[in-house]
């Protein structure tokens, strides 16, 4: 979800004129808030390109709004808790009940706005 966000970002509307560095976003303009801007920013995450689940463990907290795959604020994703539960249950069963091999180790990720594995991530499952 950090390296390859399922959603690329979210839209917002500027409530006031916003000046950032040499740019001004006029009040009323639509803004696309790209999650990758913080997900892969070394200010937010050390070695941002590396897959390291332990960065989310224990007291390792990231700054607010650095990791927001489900958006943030009052219009954030209402399916967030359900999705986390489904993914956790799926991963738990996958790693505790099966041995599995990824069949294409260098599979490409295609897609434009949403990352899509080019071959659908085929895996070989062996029931434990
Ligand atoms: C991996 C799964 C999912 C991801 C990454 C995801 C991501 C997002 C994101 C980024 C937004 C925009 C939030 C914002 O503007 O701040 C959103 C909105 C929304 N999501 Fe999800 N979502 C997921 C699954 C689901 C599921 C399972 C449901 C429903 C059962 C759902 C229902 C919605 C709805 C209704 C909105 C619009 C909320 C609003 O505009 O007030 N999403 N989602």
UniProtKB/TrEMBL annotation:
Heme binds at residue 77. Signal peptide: none annotated. GO terms for cellular component: membrane. Its cofactor is heme. GO terms for molecular function: heme binding; iron ion binding; monooxygenase activity; oxidoreductase activity, acting on paired donors, with incorporation or reduction of molecular oxygen. One of its GO terms (biological process) is sterol metabolic process. It comes from the Eukaryota. Keywords: Heme, Iron, Membrane, Metal-binding, Monooxygenase, Oxidoreductase, Transmembrane, Transmembrane helix. It is a single-pass membrane protein. It is found in: Membrane. PANTHER family: BETA-AMYRIN 28-OXIDASE-LIKE, CYTOCHROME P450 26. Belongs to the cytochrome P450 family. This is Cytochrome P450. The lineage of its organism: Eukaryota, Viridiplantae, Streptophyta, Embryophyta, Tracheophyta.
